[in-house]
Amino acid sequence: MLPENLLYTREHEWLLIENDTALIGITEYAQEELGDITYAELPAAEETFKAGDSPVTLESVKAVSSVYCPFDCEITEVNQALLNTPEIINTSPYSDGWILKVRITGDVPADLMSPQNYKDYLEELD
Length: 126
Description:
The chain is built from four helices and nine strands; from the N terminus they run βββαβββββααβα. It has helices at about 30-35, 80-85, 90, 115-125, and strands spanning about 5-10, 15-20, 20-25, 35-40, 50, 55-60, 65, 75-80, 100-105. The longest helix has 11 residues, at about 115-125. It is globular.
C-alpha cells in the first residue's frame, strides 16, 4: 500500500514535493518496524537543516529512530498533533501522521524512489 503520488528514501521517509515545499513522513514499513510510537521530538518552525541531518526523533516501545532530511531545508510547519498523540503515525502514516512541512533550500536528490522502486527496495531487505 504505497501512495503513488509520493517519493521515498532508503531511510524509509516519504515525501510529497510540490514546487519548493515538501511534506515528510515515515512509511508504513518504518512505522511497523518501530512498533507503537510513544513520543515524537520535533524541531521548531524556521529551523534549518542540511541534507542528512536528523531533525526528528521518534521513540517507540521497541526503539528510538531518527527521521532524516533528504535535502537542505527550512522547517515551515510541524504536525503539532504528534506532540500529544504520536501514535497517529502508526494508524495513519501517509495522511494524518505526516511529520514535517519544509521549504526546500537545496537540491532534491536524484536517488529518491518511485513507489515501484521503493517496493523493490523493500523486497531486497527481506
